[in-house]
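Students often ask why we bother predicting the structure of a whole assembly rather than each chain alone. The short answer is interfaces. A chain on its own may look different once its partners are present, and contacts between molecules only exist in the joint model. In this exercise we take two input lines together and write out one structure for the complete complex. Read the inputs first and try to guess which parts will touch.
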Amino acid sequence: MKKIPSSEITPEHVYRSRRSFIKTLGFVGAGAAVLAACQGKLPEETSAVSGGGSTQADKLTSYEDVISYNNYYEFTTNKTGVVSLAEGFKTEPWTVEVGGLVNKPGTYDLEKIRSGFQPEERIYRMRCVEGWSMVIPWLGFPLSELLKEVEPTSEAKYVRFQTVYDPDQMPGLSNTYFPWPYIEGLRMDEAMNDLTILSTGLYGEELLPQNGAPIRLVVPWKYGFKSIKSIVKIDLVSEMPVSLWMAAGPTEYGFYANVNPNVDHPRWSQATERRIGESGRIPTEMFNGYEEEVAGMYEGMDLVEYF
Amino acid sequence: MNRNTHRTEDILRHAAALAPGIVLIISALYGPGSINPYQFLTQWFGRTAVVMALVSLSCTPLFRITKWRLFPRLRRTAGLYTFAYAGAHFFVYAVLDYGLNIQLLISSAVRQPFIILGILALSGLTVLAITSNKNVMRKLGRRWKPLHRSFYVIAVLIVIHYYMATKGDKLIALYAGGLLALLLVARPVLAQLQKRR
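Now the answer. The structure tokens for the assembled complex follow.
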């Protein structure tokens, strides 16, 4: 489990994050102060995130935490329970059907995806609607590259994504509260935005099942649930798709789900967030800090109404 | 029951009530709970408080049925630990997670009404906990019982708070609500039945 390629960052980070947690719990209040004094590194870590606004100094979330703390309800609603239930999940053979309002529909198996698209590393913040966040070095390619290949027609206004539905391998699917399969959607311009990627790996490794193997969406300026996992179907459509969460809780989850500190979820204040592996809360940024790249798409839109 | 078995039973009751808290703290420090410890502890201390409240409310009906003297004592213990876990739940949320940032706490309470229900419930539990030792009980005399009947109302607040705070599938919160309703209805029903005998 401990395949950590970026070794110069991670182990120390894990070590320090555990330290800082113990520190804030106050169990070793005085001891931590001494520790901070002789290490000289602890204050740096907190100042990087408490400064508000600037996230230049974002630290990667440890590989260990990224692969063991997952919201993947097809397996279980217990975030730390996904890893064991998803172990051995079969991701080969795998195909992604790309169709709908396109000129060149296609079936993409993993071979075709690997040979057709060059994955690059993208370090993104991932903000969960529950109020926690991670910083993850993804491997992936822009969704726009795939969409250009299938040539959307002029009627295509939205992209609809669907997760695999496999009750034999996914025990969580027996929970009939949710209208499976998992569906998500993006508006055409959002899907074509350069930040939007299809990811096949993280931390230099192939995706593990709990992180949405073999291929998933990553939309870093939206709440995490938009970044749909284990995709089997991508359709270009004319009408706004209804996502699983919109269907399950229409007053709680909207289509856009842009990270927005000024629009609260009924259960969670979205003004601040907890960075996994770090202590204390940091201010949440508009569009998760990607305002420059994406704000233009929402000009003139009431973001309270279109939450 | 002699003094020693009494003492042993006291210890067992407290040990049983403390056990979930110890497991949760260990998990938050060293186990799976350590990845997002404040969210983990807030949620699980809260759930444990719900369980304690329901255990406490089951004691009177169970005593009426079984006549086992353990139950009245367990009712008090579980009631006190409802307060303890609800307090721990609030402490993690307000102090550890939000660092007592009053402005943030107030703005989230105003915008999220379930937090106000939780604060009301915890305030009520605090009053009941303070008035549950023998000296205060004696001082309050006949007023003690009506005061402590407010636990029924507090339990309702707790379960509504739990329901509103649950993400997605609220089935377990609904079960808790169903059980609570059953326990509240069981009291007058059992009392009536026994009067008739």
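Check your guess against this: The mean pLDDT of chain A is 86.
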